[in-house]
Amino acid sequence: MRIFILFLIVSLSLCTSCGGTKTILDPKSNTIVKVYETKDFSFHYPKRWRKLKLDQTYFDSVLVSVAPKKLIYPLYISESTVNGKVYRAQGNKSIKDQFEDKNSTIIDADAGEYSSAIINLRRLNLNQQSFDDYLNTIIAEIKPQSNSFKHVKVSDQLSILSFRYQGYRRDSKYRYAAKLYKVYYYKHNKYVYKFSYAATEYKYSKYLDEATNSLSSLKFK
Q1: Does the N-terminal or the C-terminal CB of the chain have fewer CB atoms within 10 Å?
Q2: What burial class does residue 190 get, using C-beta atoms within 10 Å of its C-beta: 0-12 exposed, 13-18 middle, 19+ buried?
Q3: From CA 121, how far away is CA 65, in angstroms rounded?
Q4: What is the C-alpha to C-alpha distance for residues 140 and 120, in angstroms, rounded to an integer?
Q5: In this structure, is the dihedral angle defined by the CA atoms of residues 33, 36, 37 and 43, taken in order, positive or negative?
Q6: Beta-carbon contacts of residue 111 (< 8 Å; ≥ 6 apart)
Q7: Rounded to whole angstroms, how far apart are CA atoms 196 and 119?
Q8: Is 33 exposed, middle or buried (0-12, 13-18, 19+ CB in 10 A)?
Q9: Distance CA 179, CA 94 (A)
Q10: How do the pLDDT tens digits run along the chain, 221 residues long?
Q11: Which run of H or E residues covers position 123?
Q12: Cβ–Cβ contacts within 10 Å for residue 158, how many?
């Protein structure tokens, strides 16, 4: 009887975390993970991560974002004009005085939250394109501007892109930390679900395994 009660307590603890968030034991990683679920899809993400608060004014195509709790920071949005072109940038509000370009204008001092390592899920319309044509357009845009580009076609409904962007300040040729990406493109009905992991080069490898496990867990209903 005592063994049964103990088993029941452990089982319940695996299904519920603080705040009522559903958790499960992921057999693939053998770890406890959180589950994000809607009427259309579900996926899981690491227990030490949480959902971000994003201002939909700037992230209207993002369905949900999750990131490691300790890397999340308050976000601001700025704009600057270089050679007649307007550029929009985002930054860490707590250190904006140290890194913000002198010619930039802050257009939103409180735009929610962001992170130096983040998973974003977007739902995009195919606009009557085939999935292959859509991907070819995306690849043509990304490949010339990136390094270490790789494309893996998993199936007719899933392709994975990975690549590296080297960043530069807009007002000079000063280099700053590169950003690395791993992006899963899922075709489902008339939509493309863009499920991406992005991180600075110093954080990317640390969270890559956890992020990949999450990206590969997307299920449709």
Answers
A1: N
A2: exposed
A3: 6
A4: 22
A5: negative
A6: 54, 55, 57, 58, 75, 76, 77, 90
A7: 5
A8: buried
A9: 21
A10: 444 333 333 444 444 333 346 899 999 889 999 999 999 999 999 999 999 987 777 777 899 999 999 999 999 888 877 778 877 777 788 776 655 566 778 888 888 899 999 999 999 999 889 999 999 999 999 999 898 999 999 999 999 999 998 765 544 444 556 899 999 999 999 999 999 999 998 899 999 999 999 999 999 99
A11: strand 117-125
A12: 18
SS3 of the chain: helix, strand, coil, percent, to 5:
25, 50, 25
- Cα separation, 104 vs 78, whole angstroms: 6
Q: Which amino acid is at 163?
A: F
DSSP 12-67: HHHHB-GGG-BEEEETTTTEEEEEEE-SSEEEEEETTEEE--B-TTT-TTEEEEEE
Report the run of H or E that residue 200 belongs to, with start and end. Answer: strand 191-200
Question: Cα–Cα–Cα angle for 189, 193, 199, nearest 5°?
Answer: 170
Please, are residues 157 and 170 in contact by the beta-carbon 8 Å criterion? no
Burial class (CB in 10 A: 0-12, 13-18, 19+), 46: buried
Q: Counting Cβ atoms within 10 Å, is residue 117 exposed (0-12), middle (13-18) or buried (19+)?
A: buried
- Give, in degrees to the nearest 5, the angle at Cα 76 between 88 and 65: 90
Geometric angle at alpha carbon 98, from 206 and 113, rounded to 5°: 55
Q: What is the pTM of this model?
A: 0.83
